[in-house]
Amino acid sequence: MNHILTTVFFILIGIMHKTHAQQSVLPYNLKQEDKRIILPAELREVSGISIVDAETLVCVQDEEGIVFVYNLKKQEVTRTIDFAGPGDYEGITPAGNDLYVLRSDGTLFRIRDFEKKHPRVDSIQTGIPNKDNEGLCFDKTNKRLLIGSKSKISKGSEFKHLRTIYAFDLRSNTLQEQALYTYDIQVIKEFAKQNNIELPTKPGKKNPEDSVPVLKFQISGIYIHPKSGFLYVLSASDYYLFVFDKTGAIRHLEVLDPKTFNKAEGIAIMPNGDLYISNEGQSGDPKILLFSEVDGK
Description:
By secondary structure, this protein is mainly beta. It has a single domain, classed as 6 Propeller (Neuraminidase). Helices cover 8% and strands 41% of the residues. It is globular and about 60 Å long. Mean pLDDT is 91; it is low at 1-17.
């Protein structure tokens, strides 16, 4: 509890400066994909993807402790790696020769030298205070993993509008005590208002005739853009893509089409800027959408 109270203190003294008044231009047209890749049925519940090289993705789904190595050129799974039993697996990222998989309770699975035939697997209890975690990516510059939390830090009204991303240091194998980034949903709504971004709405509780913007901001996927260094954050439950700069200030807010992004839980960006977003199958096929950077943006 002391850890949580300390976190709240830092939030209160620092969160309000994390704004950026003007919406920046997104270097992608998310209304039209450049390519649509239909995934096999075994990846119907695809929950996380990441880049290995220009032709290879690694994928995880949220029911089986299996890594799926996917060849983009062949458009097929070329290898699987069993790393644990059934569980709620949500994020995956390479870091050097190792692969890390995030379970929703905050446990990390380290698959050492994953390209070997029989890699060794370790489990790491991160101690992250959030109960539901889905975003995972590698911050190569700082040699750490970023973990995005879908849930609040704790119960209580003071946490209602706050979402966090924590840093796990790979040199010490420890979680940074304070959240690396803390985002306030109310600040993001104000950013949308200032930039005339029309958010989906619902009727107000006190007065149904009043329209209230819907913004749950439940992190489902994160990735650092290799060129700008900005953090791209997906929220599958309410169809948003957020872009934050290195200080944690919001730079762009994109409302996603629910038909195209029915359940967008995985995001990965190639060194050349190619953006991949994966969607669970639900009532249709699981798929990965490719968006190339728009020239001049």
